Predict the 3D structure of the following.
Amino acid sequence: MNKRDHEYDNGHSQLGGFLAGFLVGGLSGAIAMLLWAPQSGKKTRAKIQRKGTEVHDQVVKGMEDATAQVRAKAHQVTHGVQEQAKDLQQSGQDVIDEQRDQLGETLKDLGKTVHT
């Protein structure tokens, strides 16, 4: 595994851990607050439903943000790989051109030697 893959794996696992902690913490806090609040069962259920919707929306937003970050990183990596491929292709072409030029010079020298 190269350094870039290792960094991606670490970032991915940290993001997953953050989202899981965010979800569990949000739900735990909302449930604790609602259970200790002195109010009717109907109001408590409505409040639980409202808080559940809020936490759901926050998790969805967090997942959308995480997805956008992963896509951006994937694009960055893809672009980097494409640039490296172009560089390698150019280096290969340079080597071919250099070898062709050297072969041409060698053939010229050989032709001069044969004619003399």
Remarks:
- The mean pLDDT is 81.
- The chain has one domain: 3-115.
- The longest helix spans residues 41-115.
